[in-house]
Amino acid sequence: MTPATMAATSGLLAQSIALQASAHNVANMNTDGFNKQRVSMVAGANGVGRVSVQEINSPDVLMLQSGLDGLLLQSSNVSLIEESIVRLTATRVYQANLVVIEAEAERLESLLRAVA
Question: Pick from 74, 49, 77: which is nearest to 64 by CA?
């Protein structure tokens, strides 16, 4: 595998994890006390990066829960707008990494034809 395909493959994995975390956030956004997850990516050697998922503890958001004697409950810190942006960005970066892999495959194919 070439350095370009290694970096692009690492990017595919990272964006896949970001999409999974965002889907998890949206699925649990109406769960009281749920804290969203965020994915951080750090470049590593040979274009292979490290990916980590953290739970984001933002200041408690209290909401008045009707029907439960006015009890205050901590609501989720997930924003559907923010998650939509995360998913859109991750999808576009995923697509860009696929283009890199396809271009590298074409480059190698041309090189092999020229040598043969």
Answer: 74
